[in-house]
Amino acid sequence: MAAPESGDGNNGAARMVTLISSDNTRFEVEAAAASLSQTLQLTILDGGGGGGDGIPLPNVDSATLSKVLEYCIKHAPAAANGGAPNATAVDRAELERFDNEFVNIDQSVLYSLIMAAHNLEIEGLQSLVAKKVADMIKGKSPMEIRRTLGFPDPTPEEQAEMNAHMLEYGWAYE
Amino acid sequence: MARDPERVVRKKADMDLQSMPVDIQEHILLQLDSPISLLRASSTCKLWRRLIAGTVFLQRFRSLHRPPVVGYYHNTNHLLRPVPIFKPVPPVTTTIASRYEPFDLFLPLEWLWMWGQGQPRKPAPSGDCYSGRQHAFQRPPPSFLSPPAGDGEARVVFLAGDKLNIFARPKGRSGDWMLEKSVPQPSAVRLGVPSAQRFSLGLSMPSSADTKMGMVKLIASSGQMKKLAAFNLNIEKKQLKRTEYEKAYPIRLPWPPSLHACSAGGEI
User: Fold this and answer.
1) In this predicted model, what pLDDT tens digit does every residue of B199-253 receive, in sequence order?
2) Which residues contact B118 (CB under 8 A, 6 or more apart)?
3) How much is the ipTM here?
């Protein structure tokens, strides 16, 4: 887990970058982990984010960013291997366990993660959170889906359209 | 640093899926695990309906979620005529059974276990479908027809004597199968089998390429086992068309017809 810290007192071999959340918390992480974000990757390749500069992320708050980085740090080694064939079954099982645990969170946190993953373009995380929402939807009726996902109540016209559509595909609801 | 005003506004907006960018919502819908879930989701709101009906979306969905192969038919040489053996794909036991609710199997697997030449019987306990055991049919197995677009109902076809009997389940009477029509078997001449030769006909599962509406696949075997030919028979027009004979017939879980029609262009 990346703890908020400032400065660059790291003497290790791995290059570190600093990310700054919307509420001005600084996160120092390995460049390799942050580079899982397509959005950040170019900046980092250009040498950005090092030293005292930091890369500001005005649309990600610190709670969400810390969660995002937890994901990136865990997944960075596997990504560095490029879907490596030498990844053992144990490693993969461990990542899967981590992923399942990772999305076991409140819906509001999940939604923040969805937006962050989208804005930062972190492919694996995008799929992971999308899958989680999809799992919340499956097996539910349209009204249940709306309630689960916090859609506003349908207007009378919407309700009529929903009813017509459900009638048309009645067999899907048997 | 320069703040992107649009992004700030977006962050302030109450977190709700409907106000998220369309590609996020599309991404979520792509992760749904079955066409049935997709169809249900499409009832939820107008935007989703529009997204799901998109040809490109359906093609992507299909490439992500191939219809699982339930198992294979093999024709075995059993005394006088080939006996089809259904061999479930091993992971069927674990994946299909756990991932799919019975209603997800648009054409129920249990139908595979209905046999006989009269009224299809209520199948044995459906647990059998998943047990992974081999099942030998005493008689030619039923073949499935995709439902005609009109009534959206599936048909079961049996080979009975010199006739093909087609059963349908009338709307509103779930469970009861009624004989809908009876079509004479194609003659040896029409099948191109030398009339001097004895031949026998069998029904087979349509392969994914020829599960068109109202089609049924016939296997004609004559003389030695080597001489096997397959035909697609259009029940409505009574047209016969020679097709490739496959030794084993994969059985995939078919798509609901409405989605299948939308995605016909993206056939795998």
Assistant:
1) 666 665 544 444 455 666 676 666 554 556 677 777 677 777 777 665 555 555 5
2) B160
3) 0.83
Closest CA of chain A from B6, distance in Å: 10
The answer to whether B239 and B231 are in contact (CB under 8 A) is no
Burial of B18 (0-12, 13-18, 19+ CB in 10 A): middle
Using the 8-state DSSP alphabet, how is residue A151 labeled?
P
End-to-end CA distance of chain A: 47
What is the topology classification, in CATH, of domain A16-138? Potassium Channel Kv1.1; Chain A (3.30.710)
- Give the C-alpha separation, B178 to B119, whole Å: 7
Q: Mark which residues 108-127 of A lie under 8 Å from B by CB.
A: 108, 111-112, 114-115, 118-119, 126-127
Are B8 and A59 a contacting pair at CB < 8 A? yes
Residues B79-87 have a mean pLDDT of: 53
Q: Which two tokens stand for residue B264?
A: 């016909």
β partners of residue B17: none
Q: Taking CB atoms and an 8 Å cutoff, what residues of chain A touch B11?
A: 22, 58-59, 115
B213 touches chain A (CB under 8 A): no
* Res. B77: pLDDT tops 90: no
Look at B37 and A139 and tell me if their CB atoms are within 8 Å.
yes
CA distances from A91 to A26, A77, A104 (A): 30, 10, 20
Q: Model-level pTM?
A: 0.54
Element (H, E) at B76: strand B69-78
For chain A, domain boundaries = 16-138, 139-174
- Asked if residue A166 lies in contact with residue B43, where contact means CB atoms within 8 angstroms, the answer is yes
Please answer whether residues B189 and B199 qualify as being in contact, where contact means their C-beta atoms are separated by less than 8 angstroms: no
Residue of A nearest to B7 (CA): A59
Chain A residues touching residue B15 (CB < 8 angstroms) = 108, 111-112, 115
**C-alpha span between A24 and A58 (Å, rounded):** 9
d(CA B159, CA B176): 19
Distance CA(A134)–CA(A148), nearest Å, equals 11
- What is the token pair recorded at A118? 């989208």
Sign of CA dihedral B110, B112, B113, B114: positive
Q: Which residues of B touch A174 (CB under 8 A)?
A: 103, 174
